[in-house]
Design a protein that fits this description.
mainly alpha, 27 helices, 3-stranded mixed sheet
């Protein structure tokens, strides 16, 4: 039984014989009607088209249009069929052949076709190919026309061939030429002179080129110094040698053209991979520098911090890497190695989503540093709080309970050093502590965990409830220590508090606004001080932001601004637990803005701190205005 041949195959065969992508519908139908009546129609597998040839062709043609394989257009002269992939198929067919090593790259002239300008991208090899190779190629079927210099013609390739397949065909042409014994000896002699002292490496290179030419591609991609240099010397040498022969014989043969074209392609792609290798080394050096800078205070950094790091010359390291490359580098450092050791880098994530990175060897020094810095601040905060309570003959729950005392310390720590609270409560560090203890790299008195439970902050900070209470009482007049006086005063204070609460509740139910009204009033006063009369608060915020946040990368710029918002909002929520609404004034905002900047390494490194301080003050004011 004869095998059916589909219409698309018949159209391709017809177009290839006529060297045209455009076929007259009537011409093709007449051609088919003649051929299906011949005696060898069965042998050609076209006898299935004998009955109703025209009707079958037109129906099948509609299906091909729907499949986007062909385009059918009507003209005054009749209907035409255009094969959409005709030119692509012609070029692809050349690269499927294995006997084109002695021929130049295919051109429209050699393929006997004329490609419409809209279907081909033209690139000068010497001035445009490297840039094209750096681009993202999203259409593998696109036809590319390479223009060679000095009258060496053009070559058609496909985008899918870049750069590996193109390099393979070019190397095959050079390898083919070097099978000529005299030519091989000529180039070998030149290479031995140029690479004196590296004769063995030269012989290995030539042996690889002549026996396993495809392996040369991987060596060029790796771009070692020797491989890059030998191709850099050999390609211009080939071109110069051929030009001398042509000038002497006045005969530019197709084989000579093919060899020169190949040498230009190999030289250009060799330079392309060398640029990639240099950029890769620069990126690795820059990322290595960042990793070394993370050993310096303050030891804890955000990605926004790292994007501000500078090299020895004072230039930003971001010129040598992208943010994506930095993030991938950090991920590699955060991975657990094959031996199961704690990762080289740890990422801590705040409740607001801010990511903080610390090197493994600096986690414990950072904790000790933060504990030493925050201990007097927390102690002073608690003393002031309890002094006020004792003066009013009151009693703070944290004075009588270790758990309440621990909660108070945690709240104070979150206000003064949220980083310390974040790190000391991260149970992953128990694994690191065990690893350091087993290696003898951690004194036992600097432990943060008891097995896998965090040691209480009060213990790490050396704060005792009894000691702080005694210190407070020693500062106050002696009668604050007389029990019955304190009890009597406490009774009167309780009665007074009930009256005050009743009055406050009555005021609230009467619609006076209470705390929210007082807070809003303070915020309005601050807005008048901080924001010019002719500006609205949002517009002025943006203009102030542009003074301190000058990152060029828009994503990094937005992330840094969001980080400032998150830190300021968290800090304000903590402050509102301790401060009275009417205490919010310009001086108080200044103190809190300074505290926010000093507590965060990323913000403390920003050059224009005055603009940053003003921005934080305005942003906090905006948050206060929104409080209800």
């Amino acid at each position: 039984m004869a095998q059916k041949v589909d219409l698309y195959t018949l159209l391709k065969t017809f177009s290839q014989k006529s060297y045209s992508a455009v076929i007259s519908t009537e011409t093709f139908i007449r051609f088919m009607e003649r051929n299906v009546q011949r005696e060898n129609a069965a042998a050609l597998h076209i006898d299935d088209w004998k009955m109703d040839t025209r009707g079958k062709i037109l129906r099948a043609l509609n299906d091909l249009v729907v499949q986007n394989k062909v385009t059918v257009e009507g003209t005054a002269a009749g209907q035409t069929i255009t094969l959409n992939s005709f030119y692509h198929d012609v070029v692809a067919h050349y690269y499927q052949a294995t006997d084109g090593a002695a021929s130049p790259f295919p051109s429209e002239e050699s393929l006997r076709i004329k490609i419409p300008p809209t279907q081909v991208k033209t690139i000068p090899v010497e001035s445009g190919l490297i840039n094209y190779l750096h681009e993202n190629h999203d259409n593998p079927n696109r036809i590319v026309r390479l223009l060679f210099p000095e009258g060496y013609g053009s070559g058609l390739t496909l985008e899918a061939h870049y750069p590996r397949k193109l390099l393979e065909y070019a190397i095959m042409k050079i390898e083919h030429h070097l099978h000529n014994r005299s030519e091989m000896e000529y180039f070998m002699q030149k290479l031995m002179i140029r690479f004196r002292g590296q004769e063995i490496r030269v012989r290995n290179f030539i042996d690889l080129l002549m026996t396993r030419p495809k392996e040369c591609i991987s060596h060029i991609e790796e771009s070692s110094e020797f491989v890059y240099t030998i191709w850099l010397f050999l390609c211009p040498l080939i071109k110069k040698h051929i030009e001398e022969i042509v000038n002497r014989t006045n005969d530019r043969t197709p084989a000579f053209v093919a060899l020169v074209q190949a040498s230009i392609v190999v030289l250009t792609i060799n330079n392309f991979y060398q640029i990639i290798a240099i950029n890769k080394r620069n990126t690795e050096m820059a990322l290595g520098t960042i990793y070394e800078l993370m050993l310096e205070p303050p030891f804890i950094f955000t990605i926004a911090d790292m994007l501000q790091f500078k090299g020895p010359a004072g230039t930003l390291l971001t010129e040598r890497y992208t943010q994506l490359e930095l993030e991938n580098f950090l991920k590699e450092k955060m991975a657990i190695d094959d031996e199961g050791k704690y990762p080289e880098l740890t990422r801590f994530k705040t409740r607001e989503g801010l990511e903080l990175f610390v090197r493994k060897e600096k986690i414990w020094p950072l904790c000790i540093k933060l504990l030493a810095e925050v201990q007097p601040q927390i102690k002073n905060e608690i003393i002031q709080r309890w002094m006020k309570t004792l003066r009013e003959f009151g009693r703070d729950p944290a004075m009588d309970s270790d758990s309440a005392f621990e909660d108070l310390i945690e709240k104070s720590c979150n206000l003064f050093s949220p980083q310390l609270l974040l790190i000391t409560q991260d149970k992953r560090l128990a694994l690191l502590q065990d690893e350091l203890l087993n290696a003898g790299n951690l004194p036992k008195d600097t432990r943060l965990f008891d097995i896998d439970r965090p040691i209480p902050l009060r213990t790490l900070l050396g704060l005792r409830r009894g000691d702080i209470i005694r210190n407070c009482k020693l500062t106050l007049p002696f009668w604050y220590s007389i029990g019955f006086i304190v009890k009597i005063a406490g009774i009167f204070r309780g009665t007074k508090n009930k009256s005050a609460n009743s009055a406050a509740n009555g005021k609230k139910s009467g619609g006076g606004g209470g705390i929210s009204a007082s807070l809003h009033a303070s915020a309005e006063k601050l807005a008048k001080i901080l924001v010019p009369e002719d500006k609205d608060i949002d517009g002025y915020l943006e203009s102030v932001r542009d003074r301190w946040n000058q990152l060029l990368d828009k994503t990094a710029q937005k992330k840094l601004t969001d980080d400032v918002h998150a830190v300021a909002k968290a800090h304000l929520n903590q402050v509102l637990k301790f401060q009275k609404p009417n205490s919010f004034d310009n001086q108080m905002l200044d103190e809190n803005a300074d505290r926010i900047i000093k507590m965060n390494a990323a913000l403390d490194r920003i050059n224009n701190k005055n603009a940053l301080r003003l921005y934080i003050k305005i942003y906090i004011t905006k948050l206060l205005l929104a409080k209800k």
